[in-house]
Each structure stands twice: as structure tokens, then as C-alpha cells.
Amino acid sequence: MSQHALLSAGCKAWRSLSCPRSELRLDLTLGCGQTFRWRETGDGHWTGVMRGKVWTLTQTEDTLWYYVYSHQINPGTENKQKWKVEEEEQLLETMSKRKIDMKQDEAGFCTVMSEPDNKEEELLRDYFQLGVKLGDLYRDWSTVDPHFKHTADIFKGVRLLRQDPVECLFSFICSSNNHISRIQGMVDRLCQTLGALLFKIDDVAYHDFPPLQALTDPSVEMHLRDLGFGYRARFLQQSSQIIVNSHDPDWLLSLRSAPYLQARDSLRALPGVGLKVADCVCLMSLDKFEALPVDTHVWQIAKRDYCFAGGSSQKTLTDRVYKEIGDFFRKLWGPYAGWAHSVLFCADLKKFQKLKEEIPALKDEKTELKKKMKERRPDRCEEKQKRKKGKKQQRT
């Protein structure tokens, strides 16, 4: 039986590339809610599906290590459970043409490829966008934003992924009124039900993300409702049907070359895609680094840490307030505002609060930082406090 690879086992199939933790931290980047396909399968080892392959990733201080599993598909059993789609057949045909001499390592589960596959390193570099110098961006943001500087000292290496647009879109349609662990469960069930089996490791089956055609069948909606998708099942089926029937096969991918607002408006025409989902897809798969997804969580960050007063009389996040928050941060952080936003979003997640506790005297530093920020923006903060005071007096 295949087992999840561990770097400590000394398997020869592990490959590496130079990448310091300050440029990428796997736990923060893969666990902050921008992707839902990765799980920690060993201490500091993350296994998931990316670009039709199953990977295990880990890192040392200056090196990113990766292990790619050979495909292990049984077409006879899979065809009974999956929709038959052209993309899957093409994938199998491409795999069968690859002439790679493989043998089993002494550990009994590691596949050693005699020919190095530079394409895998290219896929990894593209996925993590390693051409973007994250350290330089952190320094730029820290110069103009004292709150970010404070956060950056703790949350280094939060990097934006460049995901497949189809997977990104349909994953975030599942995110409506949802939390990360539940979204992960939905995406897993979606892949297990409609995606091609790629590999089975330690009794865990890893499936590819289903192609658009697999989602278009009218029976998909009821099937996904039975799996707990609720109203999102209809959005998934209808959006895939619209894309397949009304657009070219590469339509989603072509939006990478469209202007940001045009790409966002195009996505919003799909069922189940509002401003936030559209901005998530733009930022995390369509190269729109100025896109800034805003939800009540981000709104709270803006009010709490930046004394943002916009929409203070609103109980719900309106389109106008959404735009004001996005414009506020874009003006502050510049063209890579979406990347900076992801750092603060990650830093505010409950699962990562223990990192803050590990820093001595953090509470005192945070209190001092808030004082300094209020001194830099006294008018906005004072105006906000006056409004609150006035409302209390009116109630009394």
C-alpha cells in the first residue's frame, strides 16, 4: 500500500528548489482559506492535488521540498462511478504517452523517476508565484502601514497562489455563508463524486477537480444537495452550464488578460457569484492583484485596526461600503493590495492566534501600535467616537 511521503524517510524521489521561509510558509499559505485541496499529512508535510497531480510538500529553512506521486488510476472501477468526459480521456492518453522509467525505492512506496521533470518545478513556481519577491512587498507595505509592519513580523511568508480558474471559481461558490473546514469538506465531496481518481495513499483517495462538463448535467444539482451542498448545488450546476453553453472552453482562463473590473463583472453574471466570490477568483486565479475580497471579517479589520468609519451606520455590508473598503486599502497598499489583504486576513484567523501568543509582550506592543495609529489619523477616529457617543445620548 502506498504511504504519504516523508522527507525524513530519505526517499530519493524528493526534489527541491531554493525558497526561504520568509518568501513562503506552507502552513500559513495553504491553511488560510485561499485553497481547499491541501491537508497536513505529517509534521510540516502537506499533501494535496494541484494541476492534475498529487503532491506532498515540506520545507526547511531555505528550501522547498516536493514529492510528486505517480498516477494510480483504475479505469475499470472509476468509469462505473464517474461521468465520462473528454478531458479525462485526454488526460489518460497524455499520461500513457509519457515514457518514464520508474522503479520502486527501498522504502517500498517512493517512485523514483529516472528522468527529472522540469515541468513539475515550473508548475510549482507558477502555483506559488515564486517570481514575485514577497520580501520586497512586505517592506513596501510596512513603510506605509505601521499595523501591517507589526503583523508582518509574525506572519512572514503568506503568499498568494495562482490557482486553476475553474477550480477556484467553483470552490468559492461553495464558500457562500460558510467556514473554511466546511468548504474543504464540500470541495472534497465534489471531487470524490465527479473527479477522476489520481492516487490512493494510506486509504485516502485523491481525486482531480471535476471538469466543467461533469457539472452541467441536470442531475448534478439533486446529487449535490444529497451530499449537503444546499442551495449552492443549483449555483454550481447552473454556472457550469452557462459557461459550457455560452462561452469558449478557455473563457475563464482568457479573463486573465482582461482588465480587472471587466473580469469581475463577467464573473458576476454567473449564478452564485457576488462581489466577494468574484474578487476571490480574480485575485487567486486571474492575476488581478488589486482585487480585494471584502466580507464582514475584513470590514471588522478595517474598523478595528484602521479606524475605518465608512458604513458605520450600516448593519450589513452594502456594495457601496464594499467599494469604499477596497479603495481605502488599494490606496494604502498599492497595486498588490490583494496580497497585503491576504496577510492580514490570515493573521486574524482563529487557528493562527497561537502564533501571536508566542511573541513576548505582544499585547503591550499592540496597544502602543493602536495609540500611534490613532495619532496619525485623529480626525477619523475622533469622528467615529463622536458618532457612537451621540447615538448613546439619543437612546437615553
Could you describe the 3D structure shown?
The chain is α+β, with helices and mostly antiparallel strands. It has three domains: 12-70 and 119-127, TATA-Binding Protein; 132-153 and 289-362, Orthogonal Bundle (Endonuclease Iii, domain 2), CATH 1.10.1670; 161-287, Orthogonal Bundle (Endonuclease III, domain 1), CATH 1.10.340. It contains 20 helices and nine strands. Strands 1-5-4-3-2 form a five-stranded antiparallel β-sheet. Strands 6-7 form a two-stranded antiparallel ribbon. It is globular, with a radius of gyration of 23 Å. The model is unreliable at 74-116 (pLDDT under 50). It is found in: Nucleus matrix; Nucleus speckle; Nucleus, Nucleoplasm. It is an enzyme of class 4 (lyase). Residues 366-396 are annotated as: Disordered.
- H/E topology pattern: EHEEEEHHEEHHHHHEEHHHHHHHHHHHH
The CATH class of the largest domain is identified as Mainly Alpha
Q: Percent of residues in beta strands? A: 5-15%
Q: In the CATH hierarchy, what is the superfamily of the largest domain?
A: Hypothetical protein, domain 2
> Pairing-aware structural class of the strands and helices?
alpha+beta
Tell me the distance between the termini: 71 Å
What CATH calls the topology of the largest domain is Endonuclease III, domain 1
The CATH architecture designation of the largest domain is: Orthogonal Bundle
General shape: globular
Provide a short characterization of the protein structure.
With 396 residues, the chain is an alpha+beta fold. The chain is built from 20 helices and nine strands.
